[in-house]
Amino acid sequence: PDEFINLWLELQPKRFKYRNSDDDLWHVGFIAQEVIDLFKKYGLDYKEYGFVTTFTVEEDETLYFALTYEYFDVLTLLVSQRQQKLINDMSERLNKLEKYMGGNTNE
Questions:
Q1: In angstroms, how far is the first alpha carbon of the chain from the final one?
Q2: How far apart are CA 101 and CA 31, in angstroms?
Q3: Long-range contacts of 69-73, Cβ-Cβ distance < 8 Å, separation of 24 or more
Q4: Spatial separation of the C-alpha atoms in residues 97 and 61, rounded to whole Å
Q5: What's the pLDDT at 7?
């Protein structure tokens, strides 16, 4: 799922207020439309995954988008696992190089 890793790397958290909301709170998160655009950029159809959901409100029948943040947690885990594997591989290579060069430079 390299497309998902690339998508995750491009996510840009934003500060925003919900439209048509009674609260005046600032929220931090992703903009659903930007997430949809990233899916398209990487050849993925957001409708085939649970990251973005849509709903309508009876009063105005406007189509709204919402994000399911639990899915983004899974992407974070995937990226962390890939990074840890890379760290482990690089550490192993460094240890081999240090042995080849005649000692451990960490002492």
A1: 40
A2: 51
A3: 69/29, 72/8, 72/11, 72/30
A4: 64
A5: 94
CA distances from 30 to 16, 26, 58, 74 (A): 9, 13, 25, 15
CA atoms within 13 A on the CB side of 62: 7
Instruction: Please give the radius of gyration of the chain, using alpha carbons only, rounded to the nearest integer.
Output: 21
Which helix (H) or strand (E) is 67 found in, with range? strand 63-67
Q: pTM of the predicted model, to two decimals?
A: 0.77
Sign of CA dihedral 61, 65, 68, 69: negative
Alpha carbons 77 and 94: distance in angstroms, whole number: 25
Tell whether the model's pLDDT for residue 107 goes beyond 60: no
Structure tokens at 72: 């983004």
